Amino acid sequence: MNQTLSEIAQGYTALQQPSLEIVQFLALLTLPIGLLYLSILAKIHRYHGLDHYLVMLSIAAFLACDRVSFVHCGAVRALFNFAIAVGVMKSLDILVRWKNLPRYTGSRSSPAAWLLALIFLVELRYESFTPNQIRVRRAAENFSEPTELALHIGVFAILQTLPQDLPTILAFEVLLAIYILWTTLQLLLRYKTSPALFGPLYQADSLTGFWSETWHNAFASPCESLAYKPARKILPRYGVPVVLARSIGVIGAFSLMAIFHMYALRPILPPASIIRIGQFFFLNGIATVFEAMIWGRKTHWLRVVLAWTFETCLATWTAKESRIPNGLTKLRWSHLCY
């Protein structure tokens, strides 16, 4: 009884600092987010010049947030970095698409300008717009997202009973933890008609299929507008073959995600782990390009085996350098900020 009360007291004490810092950084982020919203609103009202000026200010404000020093909790700082990185990518994505923003097709009648700007701001996949990053409409999905979430939680629980000092076990736990966290948020915050964020992980039959059809595509839009399309359009002008330009664009998209994850996780992982995470994404980009060159659109059991073997080995190699807690039972409130 005394031990339980002690753990509760420790948990309360450990949460005080991160709770305060979360409130502070959310307040700080209202400025760049507000500027981005106003830039979209100005664009809708066709205030040419002002819209462009405001989106540039929002990017500068997001970058300025990185310089704050009041966040000392590693976990909170990682969330802060994640929010900054998402904000910068969203702003740059909008800036690049400025002359040809996606068209609202979410309903027969367009909402009021203030609401349309808000929808444009919060949708990462632009699912209420055309074009968008939706892979398959919800009506065409052949699985239940809540059922798949329960299944993946079950597998995660089983893995917790296995030896936690094995990097391969930790690698799969990280994979499942990301799936469970993002899918839970998706089910809580999505529209009724929103399609699934992930496909069933066990159905991945290739590296290409895993990254384009199975894994979440929340950041597909900035990857496309900031990395893939520029390489695809610009490089052929200088004599680079289109096929090679596409491959460079794919590797560029993976490199963008490498930078994103390295920046977001920098406060909670040692430098060696950060470098290895960057290598994980970069090597996945190269492997995906080579797989597509060799197999094209063909499906084959050997392709499935090679894809899962490569991804398991690479994830295991990455997990070896990560300071990941050895199982949920080893987690302590005092470890939240370190």
Please give a structural write-up.
The protein has 338 residues and is mainly α. It has helices at 2-44, 50-65, 74-96, 113-122, 145-159, 167-189, 207-214, 220-234, 242-265, 271-295, 301-320; strands spanning 103-104, 129-130. The radius of gyration is 21 Å and the shape is globular. The protein is built from eleven helices and two strands.
Mean pLDDT: 89
The proportion of strand residues reads under 5%
**Rg result:** 21 Å
DSSP summary: helix tally: 11
Helix content: 55-70%
Write down how many β-strands occur, each being a DSSP E stretch of 2 or more residues: 2
Shape summary:
globular
List the uncertain runs.
Answer: none
Largest sheet: 2 strands, antiparallel
Distance between the ends: 27 Å
Strand order across the largest sheet:
1-2
Note the run of SSEs as H and E: HHHEHEHHHHHHH
Structural class: mainly alpha
Short description:
Helices cover 66% and strands 1% of the residues.
Descriptive labels:
mainly alpha, 11 helices, 338 residues
